[in-house]
């Protein structure tokens, strides 16, 4: 983290000259509720708050001084989710509070191991998406990465040049999981698939454990919409593929609904998931929801 406040507190020379402080502006842009007086107090406190570990500092605000990050941490301040991801400072337009990434809590710390050996991808056409993803998964296994949010953030570190720029221009809030990132990446850089390959993907599609039902419905429909009309599965088969993509518990509950069409099955699946979350059963089933 490159400091802007370590030697020049906002309360004095910068404000005296009428200059805006970049870290204060960054906090405001990310809807972090902090008054100038509160910010000045944090800045002053930061000069005596250097005992926080570097790994925790890095989970705080990109662009802020290390000492200010320590003060924010010690103050018990909770920052919005989008400012907790310094791993992709080069991939996310930090001036835009509504970037592509919208990972749910909790957000886990990045691994301490050497990440220099992770594969890189620039979208030049010299690398296949399959080989890049395989090499990335292998690198994650070496560092014992187990959390999905960590995998997403590490994958963004592998994007370079045009590929990193491509990520910047994805729709706001469109990347909510490893599944949505992988699908977006493959849709952009994988050679066009023929209809038989698409049908195979639909047949074997599974809902990810940490994927919301609404996100999965959108992902399923996006695949269906890419199949040529002449080769579309029958409506009954589309519904069956969707039901089979669920966990055994949700599939069983869906079958009990006896819905006749895919849209009705998808609406029922969303309702079932909402009810399971309210009752606490989904937490017991996945251990993560």
Automatic annotation (TrEMBL):
Domain of life: Eukaryota
The protein's name: Retrotransposon gag domain-containing protein
UniProt xrefs under InterPro entries: Retrotrans_gag_dom
Domain Retrotransposon gag: 154-234
TM segment ranges: none
Stretches for region Disordered: 1-22
Species assigned in the record: Taxus chinensis (Chinese yew)
One Pfam family recorded for the sequence: Retrotrans_gag
């Amino acid at each position: 983290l490159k400091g802007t406040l370590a030697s020049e507190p906002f309360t004095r020379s910068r404000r005296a000259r009428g200059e805006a402080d970049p870290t204060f502006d960054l906090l405001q842009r990310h809807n972090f509720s902090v008054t100038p007086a509160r910010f000045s107090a944090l800045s002053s406190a930061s000069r005596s708050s250097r005992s926080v570990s570097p790994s925790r500092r890095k989970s705080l605000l990109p662009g802020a001084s290390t000492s200010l990050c320590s003060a924010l941490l010690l103050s018990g301040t909770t920052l919005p989710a989008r400012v907790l991801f310094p791993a992709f400072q080069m991939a996310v337009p930090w001036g835009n509070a509504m970037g592509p990434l919208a990972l749910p809590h909790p957000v886990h710390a990045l691994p301490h191991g050497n990440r220099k050996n992770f594969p890189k991808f620039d979208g030049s056409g010299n690398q296949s998406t399959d080989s890049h993803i395989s090499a990335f998964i292998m690198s994650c296994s070496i560092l014992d990465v187990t959390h999905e949010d960590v995998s997403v953030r590490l994958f963004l570190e592998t994007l370079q040049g045009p590929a990193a720029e491509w990520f910047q221009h994805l729709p706001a809030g469109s990347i909510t999981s490893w599944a949505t990132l992988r699908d977006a990446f493959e849709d952009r850089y994988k050679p066009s698939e023929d209809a038989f390959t698409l049908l195979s993907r639909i047949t074997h599609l599974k809902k990810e454990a940490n994927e919301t039902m609404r996100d999965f419905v959108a992902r399923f429909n996006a695949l269906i919409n890419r199949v040529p009309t002449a080769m579309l599965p029958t409506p009954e088969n589309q519904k069956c593929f969707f039901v089979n993509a669920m966990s055994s518990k949700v599939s069983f509950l869906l079958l009990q609904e006896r819905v006749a069409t895919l849209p009705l099955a998808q609406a029922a699946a969303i309702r079932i998931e909402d009810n399971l979350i309210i009752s606490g059963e989904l937490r017991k089933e996945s251990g993560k929801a």
